[in-house]
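Minutes, project huddle
Topic: does the predicted pose make sense with zinc ion bound?
PN asked that the exact inputs be recorded in the minutes so nobody has to dig through chat later. Recorded below.
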Amino acid sequence: MAQLTLSELSSVVHEVVERQPITDMHTHLYSPNMRGPQGPLLLWGIDALLTYHYLVAEVMRWSDVAPDMFFDWPVERQADLIWQKLFIEHSPVSEAERGVLTSLKALGMDVRSRDLGAFRAALAGVSAEAAVRRSLQLANIAHVVMTNDPFDEAERAFWLSGGKVQTGFHAALRIDPLLRGWSEAVPRLQGWGYKVDSALGGDSVAEVQRFLREWAGRMAPLYMAVSLPPDFSYPDGSVASRVLAECILPMCREAHIPFAMMIGSERQVNPTLRLAGDGLGRASLGFVARLAREFPANRFFVTVLSHENQHELIVLGRKFRNLMVFGCWWFMNNPVIIEDMTRMRMELLGTSFIPQHSDARVLEQVIYKWTHSRAIIAKVLVDKYADLMATGWTLERAEIERDVADLLQDNFWRFVGKRP
Ligand code: RAT
Ligand code: ZN
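Predicted holo structure (tokens), as shared on screen:
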């Protein structure tokens, strides 16, 4: 096969990155057939896009409406305010604002009109199934991993009735209440018939294991997952440490699935903002090394929310092959940080990491999140390949295709030990 010249490099890399189907390993999307008491669990469409909690936080900086009043409004009215304040009265340069425009453009809207009513009318009446087909195609996504919470009443009924998700959608079993709210989890587990107590005594360990085994059986998750606060540590004599070591990690081994730790979220820094009210903190990652070392038969996906923790996590990735660094999570999902993190990861880990996930909560967000991230990943790759060529090293298109497939799809599937 022909060796690439330096002048061909950029266009080939960008094209390969565009064409590579994605496995989006962490989203808050749902298979379109999943329904709760209020209807489909999936969010899609213009009003959901505009009321994304990232934009709710941003509109509160310009508006003096009381948050409680805002949340009582119908979603169209909330979206109207966000459009007015963030897109009309000020230029929408933040990443979440720009993202709405990238998605609208890809959906065929002429954003020059600034006519929210016209966008609403043009995008109305699309079924969940049709919307999913369109967005996954526009974003070139082959696989979507959901976030599935057995403590969430809205989705329990689907799984308990034996529901099966649409092809291309995959479950991730999310278990935050077990590790960051044990005392509230206990009565709920008890209510569902599990014999647990607040001190994790008696049969509690076996019963939490039974809970996890049953839910893993229902969902067939690709991994188990948790979001941890910045001050989480292990072991620290807490019930959480025991739940982790005695229930979660053994059940991950039994089900042959990795455990994903998303570290650094500080819940409800401003509770009046509800979902938009969470913040972040710098974590101490010694416990990650300890877990990777002491549980070599477990595999860990890890992402961290604080900029200051990124370098430390990458270095840990070099030490443990049972640790897979992934994504630019939430407040890290901004171009300046994505580029910095992707370069740093590549310089320290080669291509043995997963550069991004979308965290999309609203379907059409996958379009902008991946459009923006693909461009950055391609840019970093061009620089790195150009540096190789400067040494006299040669590259073929197939090698670039291999590397890009590793980054955007294969590293994930190899780590979960399954074939897509
Ligand atoms: O990114 C987000 O939308 C956050 O609100 C969280 O959901 C976070 O990604 C998480 O999974 O906890
Ligand atoms: Zn998330």
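Observations noted during the meeting:
- The chain has 18 helices and twelve strands.
- The pocket of zinc ion (ligand 2) is lined by residues 26, 28, 147, 359 (CB under 6 Å).
No decisions taken; revisit at the next huddle.
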